[in-house]
Amino acid sequence: MKSVRVPLFLQQAVMRAMRQKLAQASNFFQKAFPEPSVTYRQRGTIAGCARLQDWEIRLNPILLIENQQAFIDEVLPHELAHLLTYHQFGQAAPHGKEWRFIMETVLKVSANRTHQFSVNSVRSQIFTYCCHCRQHELTIRQHNKILRGKSCYICRQCGEKLKLPK
Fold it and tell me: Which tens digit of pLDDT belongs to each residue from 118-165?
């Protein structure tokens, strides 16, 4: 996969926002938190990922570049909240009450579980399969499983096996 270079001004904006949110958490809990490393290695339609044991936040560079400030305002606190939740409460439900508490009370951000950004530019190739009653869109991963004979997919409506049109 070709890596996408995040412009320096965006990297700086990410770090500024992260440090500001980290300071909010430090003030709230009256303790210093280590600064997590931030990388731009997240792929696909996922905006970000918190790696708890590595104390790392992975961000999707394409979605960051396309959405800039909205991405920074929504995704960065979301992922930081996962790290802070783990630090303060240990293992907890990924979007459970502890995480919501960190998001809303500590970081003062809406506790949204998913982003609403357009993913057209990062969406993988879609393959159209057919059954007796309609067409189905399968991902490249599903398509490759069919080609390798590892999976077959059945229509939930008519019960027929999905096939590529001839």
Answer: 777 787 778 889 999 999 988 888 899 999 999 999 999 999 999 988
Binding site feature residues for Zn(2+): 78, 82
Enumerate the known binding-site residues.
78, 82
> Which residues have a catalytic role annotated?
79
In order of their start, the domains of the chain are 8-106 (3.30.2010.10), 124-165 (no CATH)
Q: Which amino acid is at 104?
A: E
- How sure is the predictor about 72, in pLDDT bands with cuts at 50, 70 and 90? very high
Q: pTM here?
A: 0.76
